[in-house]
Write a structure and sequence with these properties.
This protein is α/β, with parallel strands linked by helices and 235 residues long. It has a domain of 163 residues: HUPs (Rossmann fold). 42% of the residues lie in helices and 10% in strands. It is built from nine helices and six strands; from the N terminus they run αβαβαβααβββαααα. The longest helix is centred in the last third of the chain and has 17 residues.
């Protein structure tokens, strides 16, 4: 693969990532927080090559791109689907729309599957400045997390996928750069508006849930609509 040598050790990143997986493997096996995106695809292949025990779990939120769910069912039938008892929209009705500084949704809808496990993820430094704070080993609360491809670049991820003919979700070929919850507060304004246009029923469900939250506060419909427009258009 292009550009995948460590200058200080001479070891390629594939070998190094597999060594990380094998060295830290718990006897009971890893909990693999599988998301179906490009990084998860790479980690899944590395886990297979390592020969360790692991369970591949997808936290289904109900606001997942249907194309992604179909892809997982078709190409990753060994995936265990789990859903939290509280839906995203019931959560919004109680807590309000999530924001970048108050992302209660990840804790409830995604991280609940990881509790009490030694987790594996596809987190990488190249994804965001916030993720540059993570190490090969990090913690989610008290739960240990292994990030075996933490130092891979986007190019290296795609080189690995293509060099090994790994199937991936078709949304990438349609210009998507991230796969996850639709109209996520962490996505860019452009991405949120595109997803709102492509999945109008999901967008309307967000709007109705926000209205119910405002109703519970004794606020008006116009106030709810004004806030929703600010939320979805946040730059």
């Amino acid at each position: 693969m292009k550009g995948q040598l460590y200058l200080d050790t001479g070891l390629d990143k594939v070998t190094t990532s597999i060594e990380r997986i094998v060295t830290n493997a718990p006897l009971c096996g890893y909990h693999f927080a599988f998301g179906g995106g490009k990084d998860s695809i790479v980690v899944d292949e590395l886990l297979k090559r390592s020969g360790v025990i692991y369970r591949k779990v997808y936290a289904q939120t109900g606001i997942d791109p249907p194309e992604l769910v179909s892809y997982i069912h078709l190409y990753h039938p060994d995936t265990i689907f789990q859903s939290h008892k509280m839906s995203m929209f019931a959560g919004i009705e109680k807590k309000g729309l999530p924001t970048r500084n108050r992302r209660w949704c990840c804790q409830y809808l995604k991280h609940f599957t990881s509790k009490g496990n030694f987790n594996v993820t596809g987190i990488r430094w190249a994804e965001s400045s916030r993720r540059k704070k993570y190490g090969v080993i990090s913690y989610l609360g008290s739960d240990k997390v292994l990030n075996p491809i933490i130092d891979w670049t986007n190019y290296e991820v795609w080189d690995f996928i293509r060099d090994n003919d790994l199937p991936y979700c078709k949304l990438y070929d349609e210009g998507w750069t991230r796969l996850g919850c639709l109209i996520c507060t962490m996505a860019s304004k452009k991405e949120r508006l595109r997803e709102a246009f492509l999945y109008p029923k999901i967008c309307e469900a967000y709007r109705r849930a926000n209205q119910r939250f405002y109703d519970g506060k004794g606020r008006t419909e116009s106030e709810a609509n004004e806030y929703f427009e600010q939320w979805i258009n946040y730059e």
